């Protein structure tokens, strides 16, 4: 296919994606929407997905303006620069810097050795911070691409944020640690917290907000002292956003709900309830009146922050519930948090994770046609009800280090047994 043909095909794809939006929802991704960012002028939204694609959308029309294809794996993090350029980061360990309208990145930043899962732009726009599952945080110069690694996390680094004055970085990880890196030297101060941490944000007044796998938000002062905590939901928080003024927090759970929290009072104002799929990404528009969420069903939705109601007609679409046939099955209810990434049948289109069809009796990382991490390929685990139960008893990061699977645990032995009984029935068909 020649350059002109490729350009026409790309234009046709953008037109098709745009036509499907119609102000109800932004539908164009072929997998869970892992990351969202709003442009400085408030006109554009950037989304990244497990489908390895990023899309720039018009917030005035909900139409897709361009599709950014570069990464070889999931696009886990996205950001805008002050000049309107875009940044995407992937599970392929690469970070790409884009100018709107160009088909290839202007610059590719390569130094991480594991998936890059979070980005932050410095207040002055000159630097970029990235958090990776290679256990490091990196600080990049956007002028020349030079970087330095901040080492200290013992497990996956999941979130990173700049302090308002740009003089420190804060990172969080699965190792139950929040680290404050004082710049320019980068000397760390470590704060131990009681749960694995999935995301972090910093308010304009410097207060740090960390999101835990236990469903709790923990607030800390600029020097890392405890300043309060609260339960935002019953399931792990996988995404976090602050309104521009820092007054509101949006905490998205893998269970499919988003808590809107008044930061100063530590109070849940309302809970947004979607179609039941996990919510992987959240961002406030600049007016703080609208929240945008990215779902496991590949849809991007707008919400009225004050009412808690979705904006637009038919916002939940007509996607069939993949577990509808198992209504009332307790094991299926436990499995619902997994359906975002895994199918039960090899006949279904592949999602972000490998199909579970024929799971029991299969060696880990042996399914043909799926790209497993090198770490998993060296493990001597055969999937049985016992090994799956152990995976969720201790957590994927402890049981299968190097996995791309989000950290989650099932504390109840009864729930673990219900899950493995369900998998034995559902994956053997």
Automatic annotation (TrEMBL):
SMART domains for the chain: WD40
InterPro entries: Cyt_c-like_dom (IPR009056), Cyt_c-like_dom_sf (IPR036909), Cyt_c_1A/1B (IPR002327), WD40/YVTN_repeat-like_dom_sf (IPR015943), WD40_PAC1 (IPR020472), WD40_repeat_dom_sf (IPR036322), WD40_rpt (IPR001680)
Domain of life: Bacteria
Pfam family membership, one: WD40
Sequence ranges assigned to domain Cytochrome c in this UniProt record: 326-427
PANTHER family on file: TRANSCRIPTION INITIATION FACTOR TFIID (PTHR19879), TRANSCRIPTION INITIATION FACTOR TFIID SUBUNIT 5 (PTHR19879:SF9)
Signal peptide segment: 1-24
Name of the featured protein: Cytochrome c domain-containing protein
A GO MF label: electron transfer activity
Keywords on record: Electron transport, Heme, Iron, Metal-binding, Repeat, Signal, Transport, WD repeat
